[in-house]
């Protein structure tokens, strides 16, 4: 039985608490939040959990084995470090930290103490993203040419982070999982339309070592909500539309063929292959339940999580580069420039 | 009665010929194409039109008042210049020319001879784009924040031009018409996935003098066909989906409100305005018929076309800058740098 | 403060309990269910509520003011009658009862004792159906010609009732609310494809006194889920698609015009009016919360509910006739034939 | 080379003429229409065809091998009979005739003279319907439970036939082709909302010998255009949406399973099978070209057409019964009652 403490009972914390309470081998021992109304709501839904108005007390509690942190990103590093130093396993909300350097320090601390450090890249635990990973990894889609994503809606404007840290983070986590290879450069441009708010619209291009190009279109000021991703391989193309109520993933047996035998490339003929479309049945599961069950297993069996600190770091590196590039009107930033000496 | 000669009877020429033949006050006097099978098809459908295998003969024919040019872009300048020098009015397929310099010379030649010079920016003549222009010009949508367009499909790979010149040209023509203000800079990135073919995927960002940002996503290697545009104003937002069979234009009374009275911008509250959606009825018309009727009127009454040479030039300038930027991984290119001395 | 007791903690009961617990002026005093695992789940989520394994005990409890009944339909009459006789207000799950006669007896009992008797016609409390009612009642849509609904999906096959009692009941409740006039006849046909299960596919036509015709297509064995309703008036037509994530209600300014001045009807010209489409913004609310708040208000202020026993009776009458007609291959059944003497 | 004469150059005739002119081994020798403007349009588009203002002259012309009839349905019998008596092969627009008796006489006449008699059931020649036929015939979908079709739009109100003869005829032709078995009974109900016009809304149920039930929802007074068909088999279900621009046919590996081993049917458990969806690639072809090519082949090789007179008769029988039933508020009509003695 893993006894978890949840820090932060604002927007996402209640979901984590609700699901954690329903997981086998897991109990919500404690909840901490600095806001009195938040604590009152926590008391109503989790009468058996101990409540703290200061996370420092929760982190020190001897009957807490693992800490789940769902607070604003600028507080992640401090709370997570304290929790690890107190010998607790940690599950951190995404983005993992404000800087790659902070992420690296947390990883080092967890390794030193042999503790589980996991990042809440929720989409990685959906049936849809897992099915896409399976298709890409099997090679059936061929070489992956590009990943194009549109993730737009009206709201929710954030005060402390721009739209890249809020929305593009999901695609970067998915890319990190599906491609499993390092990004080498990032270019981003964006705009802010509300005085006093960070950029609400951005276009991010990520270049991967294997040749894949990713483009992310994120926007808080869009007329409609869209969650649509196109992944094109040399043999198959995938459409992933997360707002569909069914058939969210469609695989198209489509592409182009090029007559490479022709010596004169101007004479080469580009043909089109239009085959069947196939939409795999994907069991309906709650990603958060899958994820928290995985966290409990990793803690119990000392396994490395699918979305461990290193994956969180990889995403934070891309986010940092994207913000930097956006400040330079799209000037591409090399990822290795940010690596700290190990 | 305007007697037109059509140069080029390949992909688009037959449409121009068919529609021109049905326009009042217009007759298709002649058709020229260097391909024998193309001429045979022209003969079958337009038995009353004279046929030429060399456009030079058509351009010189005394019973041709106006020349419509639907040939590959690299031939536009030569044919159009000859036609103007022979005293013929000219309607040029888009993109107008390969370079801004060529476009400027054609404009000068037409002005000198008092001839009509029009560019076939077809979308400008659709009911949908005209309705959007009306909404934007009336001010009801407020200040235009951005224009975001996705124009993707599988094929048709071109050999001589990249995907920007083939697909983004439509959005640039629409932008030129709707905003009616100059672009100041362009940034573009792209990739080619077929050896020996130009770039088949590109992202183009255009910065306009009035603050509007446009982003165009164009792709010949996409699993599905998409023609979708979002235009966001400070008061209303427009969705234009050209693949819908009805309600192609939807106007959303949506946006954000900012409490500017708060001195501390971090305390300002961003609110969301979610009002009704409205889809104006748009009469079903064939854009090409509207356009050719307009051309005949302009020739007859010596009127300046809605899509005249200057508009064609404006689009070519953006295309040139986009290609230049794409060669420099997105480095933004200032538009005025390309202006030639007048 | 109204103290409610909930009878039945199977599929719908937990939703009623969850929402009732969050309503102001309402407390879930007791929950009854004959199933031990159901009671265990109730205990976990509602630790402060008293639990009964026999509804007879709950109904008699002195600290219960109102009873909410969410049990199989064949038990509704017995439980509701006992509750009314014990002086409790009653909210009954739909369909209200198995027969119109039972419904009439419950109404009489509630009237005699001056108790609130309400039926859980949930859709009547959605923002969408209320907006449609408002449009129809205002007269802006004109005379209502027809109501056509498709309510199909794969599953959930019921054992005790056919698909009409399970799915068409929603449309009948909506029709009762929107039209506010009596149905005069019903014709239905259907088929069962699984041995030992009731009809899983049915087509129901309802004729209303004012001339409106309703047609309901319900099906448990459909490849996809559809929830789509077309309502056509002489001036406007409404499309209500409950599976859309936004713009669920669209109002089309469309119709036909007939040149009635022509004496010879064969010479009369039918014209088409194609005007704008408009989708009203509808606040996102939980129908069940609106409904339970209304129930508490009705109990407290002795108000007549919007979906009172008489509305429940009206729906049960149509259901009875539909089942009768389905057994006679669509022979139309007059509604008044079922009326019992008053 | 087959020389065809086309009778009727109104709505559909121009399409038949255009496509026939492009078919190999086929020439449009003559066109007849009583309307002077129609003949003028025919002259412009088919300058090489002879024109007649009286179909009787065309039917007698010695250089016409086959007559294609695209006139109002009440004229079909007379024109087709004359053509057959003049020794011409006949392709008749759908519905074949006004009555089954007329259809039987035409079939007899064609058989006696060994002439091709074909009916223009266009949908049978689409790639989509052929693919569905292939799936159903192969048995992979299992036993066909039902066919449900919605074919609605605003307009085009007809003066001489009701909506069943105008729209349901398409589904009846598709059913005749796909199932290849006789209908045994038809029930229909409908309503007319425009004084002086026939019924504009109808629901038609057709019972087939093999147990399949078909339901057709047809409507000229609908807010939106819908062309959607669901076909459910015991093993697979098919969705055919003719308004999609791609993936018009989708095959769902879905259904229910019933535990038949349980003796007590009330204890039997209905399970759900939710498998993959698959959308076969269907080559884009023009159905009319496929159909006219088939007609020319049948005439040339004395082959029996896929949609011969017997198929036309089968559809007319269902139409007659549907109209009869609609006049009796849905009273089911047995098909064999209409059979004439052979």
Automatic annotation (TrEMBL), chains A, B, C, D:
Q: Where is the GFO/IDH/MocA-like oxidoreductase domain?
A: 129-238
Pfam family name, one: GFO_IDH_MocA_C3
Q: Which GO terms describe its molecular function?
A: nucleotide binding
The residue range of the signal peptide is none
Q: Where is the Gfo/Idh/MocA-like oxidoreductase N-terminal domain?
A: 2-121
Name of the featured protein:
Gfo/Idh/MocA family oxidoreductase
Tell me which PANTHER family the record gives.
Answer: BILIVERDIN REDUCTASE A, GFO_IDH_MOCA-LIKE OXIDOREDUCTASE N-TERMINAL DOMAIN-CONTAINING PROTEIN
